[in-house]
Specification:
Elements: E1 3-8, H1 14-28, E2 32-37, H2 43-47, E3 51-57, H3 69-75, E4 87-94, H4 101-111, E5 115-123, H5 128-142
Parallel strand pairs: 1-2, 1-3, 3-4, 4-5
Helix pairs in contact: 1-5
The structure holds flavin mononucleotide.
């Protein structure tokens, strides 16, 4: 059974909804899902997983949430070898500007050794179509 960790930051709940949809897709493929807010996550949650998804809102045009998520992800630099080529999906929400935050985030994860196979950025709340897309991404992560 594949182990999937889904680590996210959410305050208003938009990302949390996406994280649950992603978990639904991965569980549907028979994976064991470890779903955690980044405040409760540890490095072990990353190291033990076969594949991962990270979810976070934009905090400005170039950055995701910076008090908890960015420091957590920065630690992963030191575990580059253990995470080499692990499949990873990034999902995000933004309020008014998509801009470049997603590309910068993806580049960071690639530089930490992850194999980023998918990404989705949603404006505020999820639409029905985006809901199916994120469930499918959860499945893809496990396949
Ligand atoms: C402090 C703060 C700064 C934000 N800055 C931006 C921004 O620069 N650009 C943007 O598109 N959205 C911005 N947003 C909006 C969030 O990305 C968006 O509301 C997101 O859906 C929140 O996710 P959540 O409901 O899971 O907490 C900001 C939100 C907060 C709370």
């Amino acid at each position: 059974m594949k182990k999937v960790s889904i680590i996210y930051w959410s305050c208003g709940g938009n990302i949390e909804i996406l994280a649950n949809k992603m978990a639904e897709g991965a569980r549907g493929q028979g994976a064991k899902v470890n779903l955690k807010h980044v405040a409760d996550a540890t490095i072990e949650d990353v190291l033990e997983a076969d594949c991962l998804a990270f979810g976070c809102p934009a905090a400005n045009a170039t950055k995701i949430e910076e008090e908890e998520m960015i420091p957590f992800l920065q630690q992963l630099e030191s575990y580059k070898d253990q995470n080499q080529n692990k499949k990873c999906i990034l999902f995000a929400t933004y309020g008014w500007i998509e801009n470049s935050f997603m590309k910068i985030w993806k580049d960071q994860m690639l530089s930490h050794g992850f194999n980023v196979i998918g990404e989705l950025a949603v404006k505020d709340s999820i639409t029905n179509k985006q809901s199916s897309m994120i469930v499918d991404l959860g499945k893809e992560l496990v396949e």
